[in-house]
Amino acid sequence: MNKIALITGGTRGIGASISVKLKKSGYKVIANYSSNDEAAKNFSEEHNIDVMKWDVSNFSECEKCITSIYENNASIDILVNNAGITKDAPLHKMSLENWSKVIDVNLNSVFNMTSLIINKMRENKFGRIIHISSVNGQKGQFGQTNYAATKSGLIGFSKSLALESAIKGITSNVICPGYINTEMVAAIREDILESIVDTIPNKRLGNVDEIAEMVDYLASEKASYINGATISINGGLWMD
Ligand code: CAA
Predict the structure, then answer these.
(1) Number of structural domains, the chain?
(2) Which atom of ligand 1 lies at the shortest distance from residue 86's CA?
(3) 96 lies in a domain?
(4) What is the Å distance from ligand 1's center to 142 Cα?
């Protein structure tokens, strides 16, 4: 029977590429999304991947939807915590609303999703949990105190979970993408983005499939000894 992979924010950007890659590798993929119905519908039709709409920052919505997934599937074997947003501003201009929203969507969602899935993975003695963090969680970035705090937070979360779960056949790892060619990065002011690309040793943005390839490997049986790792994919922008 195919293993089941659940990808949050799995219909656009890096998440969409992960969903497609895992499907090609033979997983049954469920791609969560929160708002863009049209993109999700097109994605689902084009790739024949099931999509499910809910807000991962809302614990009771996560509970309801994960319960319904378990009603139709014996297990969730792979969880990719990918959903994330930016609300960039320097701290002296940041509203409480934009602080809280980013913490809720990027970090509290990871508690919601993972805590609701971890017990079944422990029972099954198998699980792969992959968190999508960011180079800016490793190095910090002007205008991203909120985002960087969540992305650093994922690294501590993942390492702690790896310690708790290793004995149960579950791995927890983090990927830190650099600046990847997505709508999120395209939204950066052009001159600022140009100056950022100039600081990347490889002198280009990354591609979504360069992240998906690593997720696919971490999800596989071959990666069972990679646990608690933080893997940078950033064109040399930050070496950690
Ligand atoms: N370092 C030091 N000073 C900086 C700076 C930097 N990197 N960037 C801007 N400043 C300075 C400016 O020179 C300016 O100084 P003066 O007032 O003396 O001229 C001052 O800070 C204000 O700069 P802005 O006009 O840019 O401020 P703003 O409020 O209009 O914009 C911002 C702030 C929206 C955060 C903008 O700086 C920005 O977009 N920065 C890029 C943030 C970024 O990299 N986001 C990544 C999004 S994609 C993502 O997050 C995916 C991922 O994981 C990588």
Answers:
(1) 1
(2) 50
(3) yes
(4) 5
- 49-69: average pLDDT: 98
**Structural domain containing residue 161:** 4-232
pTM over 0.90: yes
Nearest atom within ligand 1 for CA of residue 184: 48
Can you tell me which residue has the tokens 């950066």? 188
Q: Is 147 a catalytic residue?
A: yes
Are residues 144 and 85 in contact, defined by beta-carbon separation less than 8 angstroms? no
Task: Say if ligand 1 is within 6 A of residue 147 CB.
Answer: yes
CATH of the domain at 49: 3.40.50.720
CB of 86 sitting under 6 A from ligand 1: yes
Per-residue pLDDT tens for 207-223? 999 999 999 999 999 99
| Tokens representing residue 10 in the block | 């799995």
What is the C-alpha to C-alpha distance for residues 87 and 216, in angstroms, rounded to an integer?
29
